[in-house]
Amino acid sequence: xxxxxxxxxxxxxxxxxxxxxxxxxxxxxxxxxxxxxxxxxxxxxxxxxxxxxxxxxxxxxxxxxxxxxxxxxxxxxxxxxxxxxxxxxxxxxxxxxxxxxxxxxxxxxxxxxxxxxxxxxxxxxxxxxxxxxxxxxxxxxxxxxxxxxxxxxxxxxxxxxxxxxxxxxxxxxxxxxxxxxxxxxxxxxxxxxxxxxxxxxxxxxxxxxxxxxxxxxxxxxxxxxxxxxxxxxxxxxxxxxxxxxxxxxxxxxxxxxxxxxxxxxxxxxxxxxxxxxxxxxxxxxxxxxxxxxxxxxxxxxxxxxxxxxx
Length: 310
What we know:
The chain is 51% helix and 4% strand. By secondary structure, the chain is mainly alpha-helical.
């Protein structure tokens, strides 16, 4: 066929999936598909970024699972400083360096095995420095100023592994779901596109379409791990086993005594302020307690006997 004009005989340029560009830009179903595709691409790009970003972390976790991790470091990865302190105390008690009272107080024995681990050696030295007649409590090791050196060594010598997931991925995808749903509505307005799958319906139903799309995308974005979610289940199981093995070397009674001082005791409640009221003469009187005579005080300051009384 001979063409007599530049515009005749040409077909619309093909788009994704064999669809024309006009379908993606002006048709109701095409607009919805376009913005859902944008959301999918954003999720895919974020997933690829996280895969390459966490490559070093995956290799480190693999090495830890294949190697020998110290129980104190395993406890630190599992539950932070508090867990590391409890496991360290159990190791020192098992080595005969520290003894535990029935109330959970820790005292040095000045004997036992010599500690080769720097963190445990620092902890043993600080416990030996406890004044005579005093004891060390487990909560002091977890947050007391005396044991800062121990905590710094544990944190510094523990593997650089982030135990929880990054919350930015979930947050970014939740924001993306709102942006794409809002963009879908803005896109449908100027194009006068018909409501998807209901060409004869009122165009105000586009609001329901956008809300439905946002809810669907929000649900999918919520599947991204939050910041509180543990990332490495195999590593957690390994650290849990190492921690339990170290603590199981002690009798149950000793372990329970150590756990008694895990939490810092709450301070006693402050005493209540006594209420003061004014009498008829304008003087202040204490209404919180009785007078020493068990009765009222007369105007002369005596106890029920008047002013020298008859």
